[in-house]
Write a structure and sequence with these properties.
With 181 residues, the chain is an alpha+beta fold. It is 61% helix and 13% strand. The chain has two domains: 2-44; 56-151, Type II secretion system (T2SS), domain F (Receptor-associated Protein), CATH 1.20.81.30.
Length: 181
């Protein structure tokens, strides 16, 4: 299946942008027509996952939101729809549209996430898959939230611990250069 980006008009006449999974442009148009969406323009979208790279803080926010909404008892599909609206102006929006479509079609959430290897690493996917298989997806989201938080803290500490030696190195090189010339 390919991913197509469309510009359309909804029943109430509002302009709508989105993504749809289909085998061809014609099938994509037909699928949108069944949902009462009048397609104005449809183009092939870049290959899934290759064009996107998000910040760790955005991934953390996404994972936290998944955890909170799943803990509240919301089904996964409804959670994704809710988050799709929240992240409408971010790089995650096309991903949510695609994930919603795939989960609606019956694909496992972990399988849908696998199509975005630059965003969701092997650890993330393994945790989601384990949560799906054991029926504890909510706990998996919580553990991933903790893990990403720890990674961010470690990254900040590493950067801050490297700033002083880097500054000293540049200062020493400057002093040596001044003394030699």
């Amino acid at each position: 299946m390919a991913l197509y980006q469309y510009t359309a008009l909804s029943k109430n006449g509002r302009k709508k942008l989105g993504l749809v999974n289909a085998d061809s442009v014609e099938l994509a148009k037909e699928r949108l027509r069944k949902e009462d969406i009048l397609v104005a323009k449809i183009l092939s979208y870049k290959k899934k996952g290759e064009q996107l790279k998000i910040s760790p803080s955005l991934l953390m926010s996404f994972t936290r939101d998944l955890h909170v909404l799943s803990r509240a008892g919301l089904p996964l599909y409804d959670t994704l729809l809710t988050l799709e609206e929240k992240y409408q102006r971010t790089k995650l929006h096309p991903i949510f549209l695609d994930l919603c479509d795939q989960v609606k079609e019956g694909l496992h959430f972990s399988d849908a996430l696998q199509q975005y290897p630059k965003i969701f690493d092997a650890v993330y996917l393994s945790m989601i898959k384990a949560g799906e298989e054991s029926g504890t997806l909510e706990k998996s989201f919580g553990e991933l939230e903790k893990l990403i938080g720890q990674q961010q803290t470690l990254r900040k500490k590493l950067i801050s611990s490297l700033i002083y030696p880097a500054f000293l190195g540049v200062f020493c090189l400057t002093v040596v250069a001044v003394l030699l010339f």
